[in-house]
Structure formats: C-alpha cells, structure tokens
Specification:
267 residues, mainly alpha, three-stranded antiparallel sheet, 63% helix, elongated
Length: 267
C-alpha cells in the first residue's frame, strides 16, 4: 500500500485505529478477517504469508484460503471516511476533504473485484464456478439419458422381443433361433455402424438412426461434463494442496507425535 506524499494530509490520523492494518499501520484497502478474528489488509497479510504461513498476532498456522472479506468493517470505514470528508469541508480543509473523497472512491472501486466469496483467491472462485457449471450440465444431460433409456427399455419393440423370447422358451420350439432381444439391443446400442438386415428399407434405416441418435447424443455431453468437472475438481484440489502445504507443515512441526514418527522413520 502506498504512503501519502509529504504534502498531502495523512488520513490515518483522522480515522479510528480499528481501520489500520496491524502489519502496515495504514488504512486497510481490502480488510480480510483471519480465523483468529483479527483483521488485516489483504495485500499486507498476503505478503506476510509468503514469508511465513502463520498469523502475525496469534502465531497460529494460517493459509490464504482461510481469509474472508470483512464486509462490516469495509462499510464502517467508508462511512467514517465520508464523515471525515464532510467535517474537513466544513472546516475549510479542502486538502483533507479531497483526500478522504479520493480514498472512498478508491475503496469502492476495489470492492467490485474483492467482495466475493473467497475474495482472497479469485482463481479458486473461477475453478469453483466452472465446476458447479459442469455439475449442473451433467445433472441435466444425465437425466435426459436416463429418460431415453427408460423409454427405450419400455418401448413396444423391446417388450415384444421379450414376450416372443419368453413364449418361445416356454413352448420349447425345435431349432430355436437366436433371441430377438439381443439383436434388438445390438442394433440400438452398437457403437459402430450395425449390420442391418438386407430386407430393411430406407424408412427402417432412418428410424434406427433416429433411435440411436436419441440414445447416444445426450450421452456425449454428459460424459464431457463429467470429465471436465472431474479435471476441474482435481485442479481445485491441487490448488488447495499447494495452498495448505506450508500451513500444514508448520502445524505438523508443532505436533509432538508427528515429530516422533518422523524421527523414528529417519532413524
């Protein structure tokens, strides 16, 4: 965070100490709260965590993903800065009033890209949004696949094949030909161009192509959505792993049993 030039008034002297970052001692542009309840400026705490992944005040392990925007403090800071600008204008201190208004405008501009869930990690937000989108598409298309399978299984052709096959088995016809249901399923679900009977005309081939399309086409986006969603989940997991690695190593180093197991394995 940049300091104010010497010829400009310092806003830090005119606002509550609550709005000053414990690390930089400057007004917090993007206040984020840690699990300990302490609030820091996002830029200051991010720079601190790159050097050591612990809370500066409590000393507890801290990861960037554990930081969340302090919206209440952000709104209170805007209100106090507006009061400072109004009071300075009434006193005739135009420099302080202009500095306070400029700070308010800067904070409002930053809030557009910061006040979101997981604001400290916009990349994680993007991965989560894409994963949710893929999950929604997978649900939609898989339901369509299920409906088409149910229609196919309960279709008149499948039922007739089952009835004929069962009747022929019960009657015990000599020289029993292959079951009708298996060729029916093969024609509908065969991955490549199925061998068609020679007596089939163009209309039969068109109906078969329509049946296969209704069964296969919904399956393609379903598989694609599941595959992309799985890849995004793995990417999110790897991002979470790299984010938590330094924190968990710090926490493990403070665990007596983990240190003993490590020393025992190294002996």
């Amino acid at each position: 965070q940049q300091q104010a030039p010497p010829d400009e008034p310092s806003l830090e002297e005119h606002v509550s100490q609550t709005f000053l970052c414990p690390i930089s001692h400057c007004i917090m542009d993007r206040p984020v709260v840690a699990p300990s309840g302490q609030t820091y400026d996002l830029a200051a705490i991010s720079s601190w965590l790159k050097r050591r992944p612990v809370d500066p005040l409590s000393g507890a392990p801290l990861a960037p993903s554990s930081l969340y925007p302090n919206r209440a403090l952000h709104e209170q800071l805007l209100e106090q800065l507006e009061q400072v600008a109004a009071t300075a204008g009434e006193r005739g201190d135009q420099a302080l009033a202009a500095s306070a208004r400029a700070k308010v405008a800067s904070l409002q501009a930053l809030s557009n890209s910061w006040l979101c869930v997981g604001g400290a990690q916009p990349d994680a937000c993007a991965l989560d949004r894409w994963a949710v989108t893929c999950a929604c598409w997978a649900v939609w298309w898989s339901e369509l696949v299920r409906e088409q399978v149910m229609v196919f299984v309960t279709s008149l052709g499948a039922i007739l094949c089952v009835v004929v096959d069962v009747r022929r088995r019960i009657v015990g016809v000599e020289g029993l030909s292959p079951m009708l249901l298996l060729p029916f399923l093969r024609l509908a679900l065969y991955p490549g161009p199925p061998p068609l009977p020679q007596q089939w005309g163009p209309s039969g081939r068109v109906l078969l192509a329509a049946l296969r399309s209704m069964l296969v086409l919904p399956l393609l986006p379903t598989c694609a959505s599941i595959s992309v969603g799985g890849a995004l989940s793995l990417a999110r997991f790897w991002q979470r792993f790299t984010d938590m690695r330094a924190v968990e190593l710090e926490r493990a180093a403070q665990s007596r049993w983990w240190v003993r197991v490590r020393d025992l394995g190294s002996a």
